[in-house]
């Protein structure tokens, strides 16, 4: 073997070992850790700002305009008076709750024409980051002190102590976050706002034009935005910073960056953990959720009143189901698990301890695979399928608060559901659960149902229904059903059907391995972090709802060999896809009258690295100006929970110019446009 070839092999081996680390534009970077190397990379892509202009605790920066919506979505402040822009699908639940048959804001849209018409949203909590502290040494010292005193020293206990301490010290909301499974700890301090009001939400057929068919696809043509306003002490918030809106547009290859609060990723997961999720649990989850969606959609399409009640349920179900199906396809297509196994050979070669760790974690996941599969059937059939079942479980948890409180919960459950949907969902639950759960886990009630009805699941469902407090739902007034409830929830047939499964036995079979497996997973993440750190690979921790920045460019997509898609969609697509016979592609007549010109920009593509929680995040140009909102990924990016696949990992954004067009011509919100300086 000649020396040149030997060097090439060594270089290839090193490259393979380092593949899971960050590539040029990949990464959800902690804003407080934007170092010179990262700043240099960003400027090489076209950034016109310095890192201190992005995040600056003393003088303020762009980060001060980025808002967490209860750590489930992101948004940005766009005016001096607390006006906030996010995605419509982030506001979906609020808009749905506010909708009534007389004022169906979900279908017709909501447009406040002055501040007096903005609708308060009790229960919402929005957060703006103010300061981040590295408390790694303090956490380690506190844990050692608690253990020396024989006191509990788990994560919850440590978080409670430090969050209380720093919240009182600074007068801010405090949240402790572990990075790389305890390799580092950061304490984030936030301003919290609870007076939030809805300002605007376009009709759902405009905001989510294309519906499920276009979800995770490209091109899309969605006006996925909504407007809130934050108030403080009864007055509009005057924020430290708000984003300037750019109407100049962009071109292919232009720099772009996004800031927001991505929820979770598992990019430090072992191959065994990935295999458990993708090949053991995911097929069962996808099958069960697809059946649930079929039931709900059938009834929604037949009855507008059912659509109003179940639209948000179906939306959430469909979004997760499609994401997880696409995730499994991409994991297989790009060979992500195999790549991680290959990389683990490098980790094992680095030390005997790491070699043993990988072997042990593989054995532990193999030991719990069957139990975890059964627990998916339990969650998706008994726990999550029926809304009324969830209502009865809440009633069971409220026994100590008295029968009147239980009746309130029952009244709420009946008002929010439909008996036709719930009864069919119960029959589905019975069929899937009794078919797949081994008999030795069945409760006496489950055995009785099987003995009396065999495989007649509709008859089973009818019997349970008539022996439950919901008997008569759909025939009798809700008030009569509520009034006759006597508080004896434990004898209720539906409650017993859900509650009496021997899930304790299921858990016990796993519990002997669970603590060991958890520690093995933690050790694996720390070992992976340490190994890459020693190799000089820049790293960002897994997403955990802390403020992150991702950067990249506006680019086209080549999803498959021989297939090329443009980096921008236009209003021509709104006309081409329109179909009044298909709900997902049938926008209102009022919108048809104000469609933008055919070449008007609607959505665009970037290679920004995002995940759930980034929805509504501001997409900015090289000057930090707002050019759009992140709202979706493409189907080819769905392995991104575990690995960012270069060239395929894209972020779908709504163009700010399209947002403004809809506000002006459909919403006619002149006071909002004036506030934006437009």
Short description:
The protein is of the alpha+beta class. Helix 12 runs antiparallel to helix 13, helix 13 packs antiparallel against helix 21 and helix 13 (352-383) packs across helix 22 (514-534).
Largest sheet: 11 strands, antiparallel
Strand elements, count: 19
Q: What portion of residues is helical?
A: 40-55%
Class by alpha and beta content: alpha+beta
Number of helices in the DSSP assignment: 26
Distance between the termini: 69 Å
- DSSP strand content: 5-15%
Query: What's the Cα radius of gyration?
Result: 26 Å
Q: Which shape, going by the Cα principal axes? A: globular
User: Uncertain regions: pLDDT < 50 for 5+ in a row?
Assistant: 4-16, 19-24
- Overall pLDDT level: 93
List the SSEs and their pairings.
Blueprint: H1 3-18, E1 29-30, H2 36-45, H3 51-54, E2 66-69, E3 73-77, E4 83-86, H4 88-98, H5 105-108, E5 110-111, E6 119-120, E7 126-134, H6 136-148, H7 155-170, E8 173-179, E9 184-193, E10 195-201, H8 204-207, H9 211-214, E11 226-232, E12 235-236, E13 255-260, H10 271-302, H11 304-333, H12 336-350, H13 352-383, H14 387-397, H15 403-415, H16 419-436, H17 444-453, H18 457-466, H19 478-484, H20 493-499, H21 503-511, H22 514-534, E14 548-553, E15 568-570, H23 572-577, H24 589-592, E16 601-606, E17 618-620, E18 626-633, E19 651-655, H25 656-667, H26 670-675
Antiparallel strand pairs: 1-14, 2-3, 2-7, 3-4, 4-11, 5-10, 6-10, 7-9, 8-9, 10-11, 11-12, 13-14, 13-17, 15-16, 16-19, 17-18, 18-19
Helix pairs in contact: 10-11, 10-12, 10-13, 10-16, 12-13, 13-16, 13-21, 13-22, 14-15, 14-20, 15-19, 16-18
